[in-house]
Amino acid sequence: MLLLALDTATPAVTVALHDGTSVIASSSQVDARRHGELLLPAVDRVLTEAGLKLDAVTGIVVGIGPGPYTGLRVGLMTADTFGLALGVPVHGVCTLDGLAYAADVEGPFVVATDARRKEVYWARYADRRTRLSEPAVDRPAEIDGTVAALPAVGAGALLYPDTFKDARAPEYVSAAALASLAAERLAAGEEPEPPRPLYLRRPDAQVPKNYKAVTPK
Amino acid sequence: MADEPLVLGIETSCDETGVGIVRGHTLLADAIASSVDEHARFGGVVPEVASRAHLEAMVPTIQRALKDAGVSAGDLDGIAVTAGPGLAGALLVGVSAAKAYAYALGKPLYGVNHLASHICVDQLEHGALPEPTMALLVSGGHSSLLLSTDITSDVRPMGATIDDAAGEAFDKIARVLNLGFPGGPVIDRYAKEGDPKAIAFPRGLTGSRDPAYDFSFSGLKTSVARWIEARRAAGEDVPVRDVAASFQEAVVDVLTRKAVRACKDEGVDHLMIGGGVAANSRLRVLAQERCEAAGIRLRVPRPKLCTDNGAMVAALGAEMVARNRAASDWDLSADSSLPVTDPHVPGRGHAHTHDHVHEVAKENLYP
Ligand SMILES: [Zn+2]
Q1: Per-residue DSSP letter, A48
Q2: Which end of chain A is more exposed for a tag (fewer CB within 10 A), N or C?
Q3: How far is C-alpha B363 from the chain's CA centre?
Q4: In the structure, what pLDDT confidence band is assigned to residue B362 with cuts at 50, 70 and 90?
């Protein structure tokens, strides 16, 4: 098994190769505005570091968000197209699950990432592998106080210390964690999630009011 | 000819997910998935809706294009993609797909200019582009007059709209007349039964001191709206067919007049018209009349090749391969304001070798 994992749902552009036992190469760069430019060179670098070609890959793992849409789509489109060209399956993993898997926390906790517009994408976890709630997008102040009081990981938690009083690293998801989690799930025979984006918000679009007259009243 | 470049092109600059495949000047596939119906109720293209639709449609559209063309991905000589101009988020979906596809297949990647692609698509209809060619590109997003001596390396802006695009004016007038979105086809249909001389609407920027090749449609739009509102205020019926015909006549009169003048001034004997508005039947007729009178050969591709599509991107990509233009780098970005003077985005370290490569390769160009 050789998994190529990538995620662009947070400011990190992150890529990793996993051979079924462990991560054999990885790369993470934080630059929220350049996902489109950085991802393919990162894939190329990681493969070169491992001394492998893309056609050796047996499956693609991709973070499906939630995350800011423009960046999120870069990873999903890249993963989908790799899948098409190579004829290999594409497995989706919730980006928050990847962050949870990398968390160093005992007991229940929260994962929160930055959703911009003063909101966070978040979910509750019982432990590193067990999510208790569907990913949601909310203003930090609207999140139940007993939940927000739990230890919290991710940039969304670090950004709003008034709500998340016990905020911790990691800030962004790593493809290495995403790949390890996916490898565990595949080994356990779990049905992977489809590689469909978790947008959680409807597109901003307004149906125009009636046409505006140009004749002065 | 089997040695002509086989190229797949991806277009996502607006609301059409287009994947085309060409071999040299021969069209093999032109697969399109459009999100236009999702935008209709908003009266215009909503960028986020378009971007979401591109992501969903891309893989099936690539598969359909390959099937229609009857070729396998491994036989391709290159992957071309619209790098700009266009909607940033929408472009990025296409660029991401093209990069991943080219990388996975081990093929060169060509990030190309959307406007140059609109011109180059005519090679699929009428064969090699004459050099030089004057091109009038008119759509909901662009209204440009361009002069090209080599579509892979030299595209010069002669004029452009200073306010609305021509297609936008059609959309707006259709809205004032309650005819829905998009406005181009419906205005064309009503205009066929109307009198183009019924109402004398203004011709923008046609005064003797106005810029010779620039366009303006904003004043026309306001003038038409005022005329309609005056009728409505007086409790009279609006003669929709005459308004549509007279408005359309004002637009195509200015477009063709300026395009023919540019050809004459520059001594260019070929005019190409592209973009969605090139599907307008009156524009085609008037351009033909005026070109014939001026001794200019008119080239207008069939309507499906005039609107945004992947075949036009593939056509320009194939020309890049044929003329040995440098491929793009893996960090190619989507550039929503890519200048019209950049027909493609060559990789670094190659940018200055163009003309030299072109000279060497001249002997090998296919006809
Ligand atoms: Zn266009």
Answers
A1: H
A2: C
A3: 30
A4: very low
Determine, for residues B59 and A84 on separate chains, whether the beta-carbon distance falls below 8 Å. yes
* CA atoms lying within 13 Å on the CB side of residue B148: 29
Q: Which residue of A has its CA nearest to B49?
A: A203
The span from the CA of B134 to the CA of B130, in Å, is 9
Q: What's the CA gap between B112 and B152, in Å, rounded?
A: 9
Residue B101 with chain A: CB contacts under 8 Å: 81, 84-85
For the CA atoms of chain B, what is the radius of gyration? 21
Please check whether residue B305 is in contact with residue B126, taking contact to mean a CB–CB distance below 8 angstroms: no
Interface of A with B in 150-209 (CB under 8 A): 197, 199, 203-208
Cα–Cα distance list, A166 to A139, A153, A158, A162, B114 (Å): 17, 9, 9, 10, 50
Q: pTM for this structure? A: 0.93
* Optimal mutation site among B103, B171, B333, interface A, most CBs of chain A within 10 A: B103
Q: Which uninterrupted H or E stretch holds A17? A: strand A12-18
Report which residue type is found at B330: W
Q: Which of A40, A54, A86 sits opposite B99 (nearest CB)?
A: A40
- A6, A15 Cβ separation under 8 angstroms: yes
Tell how far the Cα of B300 is from the centroid of ligand 1, in angstroms: 15
Q: Would an 8 Å CB–CB cutoff place B226 in contact with chain A?
A: yes
Q: Give the ipTM.
A: 0.95
Residue A176: CB partners within 8 Å, gap ≥ 6?
Answer: A5, A14, A16, A18, A23, A26, A102
Please name the residues between 98 and 157 in chain A that touch chain B, using a CB distance below 8 Å: none
Q: Does B19 touch chain A (CB under 8 A)?
A: no
Q: What is the tens place of the pLDDT at every residue in B223-242?
A: 999 999 999 999 999 999 99
Phi, psi of A37, deg, nearest 5 = -80, -35
Q: Which two tokens stand for residue B211?
A: 């810029």
